[in-house]
Amino acid sequence: MRMKRLLAAALACCTALSSVPFLSAFADGGEEAASPDLVFDFQTTDGSNEVTVSTQSLAAGDQSVPVKLFVPSNPGVNGISLKMQINDGEVDENDIFHNYGITMTKADLASPYCFDSENEGDPTKCFEQTFNESQMNLFWSYRMAQDVNADSSSEEGKTAWDETVSWAYDKPFAEMSLNIPKETPVGDYVLDIRREPYINAATLEAGKKWPAKSDCTSADGESVDFKSKPLTIHVLDYEKLECEITATVTLTMPEGVSALTVGEPLSLAGGTAAISINAAFSDGTTDSAEIEAALPETCELNKVRIADCMLQHHSGYLMIPLEIHLDTSAVDPNTPGTYPVTVTVDGVGAAEPYGTASADVNYIADAGTTAEPAETTTAAAPEETTTTEVTTTAEVTTTTETTASETTAVLTETTSSAAPVESTEAPVESTEAPAESTEAPAESTEAPAETSLPEETTTVVSVSAEPVENSYAGMAEGMYMVLGDASGAPGEKVKVPVYVFNDPGTAGMSLYWVYTEGLGVRSIGAGEAYLCSAQPSSKTIPISFVFTCPEGKNQQAADGSAICYITFTIPEDAPDGKVYQIEWIEEGGKTVPGVDKYTEAVNTDRVNNRAKLFPGTITVNASKTPRLNYERYSFAKAGEQLKLAVLDAYGTGIKWSSSDDTVAEVAENGVVTAKADSGDCTVTAEVLNGSGESLVLTCAIHVGLFGDVDGDGEVSAYDSMLVLRGFNDIILELDPEDYSLTPEQIVIGDVDLDGELTAYDAAMILKYSNLMLAEMDPIWYDLIGKPGVPGAP
Description:
Layout lengths: L1 H13 L23 E6 L6 E5 H5 L3 E11 L5 E8 L16 E7 L18 E5 L4 E5 L32 E7 L6 E7 L4 E2 L11 E2 L2 E3 L8 E4 L1 E6 L6 E11 L18 E10 L4 E9 L9 E10 L2 E12 L9 E11 L7 E9 L16 H7 L7 E5 L4 E2 L13 H19 L16 H6 L21 E4 L1 E4 L4 E9 L6 E8 L4 E7 L6 E5 L5 E6 L12 E9 L9 E6 L15 E3 L9 E3 L1 E5 L6 E2 L3 E4 L5 E3 L2 E2 L5 E6 L5 E3 L4 E4 L4 E10 L5 E10 L13 H15 L11 H7 L9 H15 L6 H5 L9
Parallel strand pairs: 1-13, 2-14, 24-34, 25-35, 37-44
Antiparallel strand pairs: 1-3, 3-8, 4-7, 4-9, 4-12, 5-8, 6-7, 9-14, 10-11, 15-16, 15-22, 15-23, 16-17, 18-19, 19-20, 20-21, 21-22, 24-26, 26-31, 27-30, 27-32, 27-33, 28-31, 29-30, 32-35, 36-39, 38-42, 40-43, 41-42, 43-44
């Protein structure tokens, strides 16, 4: 019975059911819960329940307000389902929320949770949790054992507490951002929890209005009343507000920084900026703030957004987004010495800079190099970079302060596309010159050995500021579904979309996936492809997303629309470059022992649409350098396919090519198809930026019977013996020309794809051979478990 109540609550959040028990509204005078109360507290990053936005800041574009939701007081809960709104929700005649144009973005439950000593703050161990940011719906359930209330993550076993405990505000329950539209009128906007029933928007198109309501339950299945501390957003007109601001700036240059050049911005990628702000308002209010921020990893300092400064005024808090402008025009690149540098601290959207400061920087030029004057050619700056010895650390420190008479307030996380776009223009120009001057540095390769030029040039920051898009269109005839490809650092949360194409009409789906061991699944949320009532399950194996369309009618999804999104957490100890697989469970294909389920899409006649399924990948990429999801892959025979994707690259498009189309060809969408039963080639992805620059990424492709070292058409014990002999040649440190195996045979024998021929390879080949003799139909991926081997998803 408790399970049914829990599932009903889950659907109330994600798809809305009428069976969720309604609460007596605290705001309407209902009885208060027994002490301690269940309290939800919406706060800004500074701990306040209010924030101020100026009309001047909104004139520069939409503003973003970061919000944390705390649960400082709790009588004992096992499940929480919340609907959030702005003011009264601004519901239209169709019962659709508009919330005065204010929307929620980047919303998710925080990790570690404020609850959860049992699960150690690991969201993958909770029974279920989802946060539908587009509908402002939050759902969380503690654990499969529903007769237990969640305890505090700060004090194990404590299932009830109030705001008097020292750790009441240690950890937020959820984090989100509110987007304040550019045209928002002056007024107060309150973010709070809706207590009245509401109609789930996903049910309207079907002609049914299913009611739902915010609800919290304890371990005994009873509803728990709650209070809330809302967040008020004041939109005020600061046009007549006068303010004087002084700024002091300290820039610390990173190790290996380039030398200063005439008219060029100083590259401080990896450095830090410390900014001191003092404000005096016309009403006598004063405030100050200290900011220290890391500079962008790839930037040249010329109007770069680096930090936000919060100042308190009598009517609320002002957020000043800061940009730094660096003027090095006074520097002579041909004369080493100490030169003045002008640093301007700017506010995004401000009519005038908030403050400026002059500073000195020590510049050391290579004695054997003479740079061309900047007035005659711009190629001198990059050429100077390639031949300059630099000090490991230098400081740029302000020596004077100046004031600006007026300021406008801008909220934190202002839409910052303008600043990064401008900051990428300088690198675009700087990468062209080195291409023209690659011959000159060749004579002085010893001197600049300490500079990290190859690392700098291979990042190719000259491409577009927009992430390159991988195309999944045209991958198959008929209906097909594709898991996207993602990347992230260890411990990072990544979202994988599930796309659908060529939908002939669908009344419902049962989607099932398995994934590489170690990945943590946080949640599965509905996408925009179908209006449906869904039952996501992210805490079982396999994970699933099962839904039916309203009244069982067919819907036709738009090509490339997302059915759902699966949010994973990459393990903290994941090695860089590791590729995690996300596979579909298909009818007649790979299954999980004891699980009689498979993916299907059905129409109103209950006929399976027979969609073709493409797996997905998550690649560990802590450095965020551009790469492919596979750098090496082996096909067992002709006809097999692989989906390649470009990760963490910026550009306007991708051009795919194969070095030998007779071995393997690649389509415009990155799908590689083996065309021969044996051979080797290289598939290349060229990322374009529309201005002649490109980034080249490659994947080595091998086609042939995996482990068939002697090439007789079968994998046998003899192949294992040959690998062991080749391994002995290597450990005896023989000259490669004396190896008993050819380089091609060594590649075929390296079945674990670690780049080395070892006894382990011989053992795996022998094991595969024995399984073949026993007619057990072995799969290389089951033995090796690595991407790139035959059978890998």
